[in-house]
Input
Amino acid sequence: MIELSNLSVVFGRGTPLEKQALSGLDLAIETGSFVTVIGSNGAGKSTMLGVLAGDVIPTSGRVSIGGRDVTRITTAERAKYVARVFQDPLTGSCGALTIQENLALAAARGSRRGFGLAIGGNRRDEFRSRVAELKLGLENRMDDRMDLLSGGQRQALSLVMATLAGSEVLLLDEHTAALDPGMAEFVMELTQSLVEKHKLTTLMVTHSMRQALDYGTRTVMLHGGKVILDVVGDNRKNLTIEDLIEMFRKARGGQTLDDDALLVS
Ligand SMILES: Nc1ncnc2c1ncn2[C@@H]1O[C@H](COP(=O)(O)OP(=O)(O)OP(=O)(O)O)[C@@H](O)[C@H]1O
Output
């Protein structure tokens, strides 16, 4: 279980640029569930993922993962529980290192075992076979630098990397938004299969309402740094994008969604 309790985040406190990004956000997520997260620009989605990953320390509130209070533990320590894939394919991997080296770094994440141990020995074969499962032919390019690859190839590898250190939680921050539609679909199918195979508790931020309803088991909508909609089970099964827009409107007391805030496709 992941529990975010009464979380508040204020950036630039006491300055003219002070911004309250989260405002007493509460969210409890069952272990193994796949939650899609939507909301307009500035709703607090990335900040919420940042708090879970340890990149953002909340101003107040509590974060627990599997019963452990992780509110104050560092990103590095938290890395053994939480993996994150970003929108920009360049963010999650190092372009100057080879595929093999990137995988070794990912496998050593959050562990006291060194990079050297991960890069040598029998993990090489394991990495190669994990990359071969992508069916992109990258297993024959293990010594190629990462920056020679396309955005989609890098994002597919980032997902494999996210599963190498045994993290229980996967955070996806618009991880298909920068890809062409074909590659985005490939990466989403890969996401689905890795989440199932590794039984990951997953939060996926997306601007696509279609994606939010097609994947996962629960959809939450954020607005003003809080959860304003939470749909799961039978209520979600037959939900259309139009229903979601109407639910947003009602939750906001009649306020409509900006046309460009969320993609209806
Ligand atoms: N490091 C920061 N310093 C100051 N303000 C920030 C910082 N990070 C986020 N914010 C502000 O906090 C608010 C919430 O931002 P956040 O990125 O969490 O929203 P979001 O829902 O992910 O938006 P988007 O869909 O546009 O990515 C925004 O007003 C943003 O400008």
In short: The beta strands are 2-11, 19-29, 34-39, 60-65, 68-69, 82-85, 169-173, 201-205, 218-223, 226-232. The pocket of adenosine-5'-triphosphate is lined by residues 11-12, 19, 21, 39, 41-47 (CB under 6 Å). DSSP finds ten helices and ten strands in the chain. Residues 181-198 form the longest helix (18 residues).
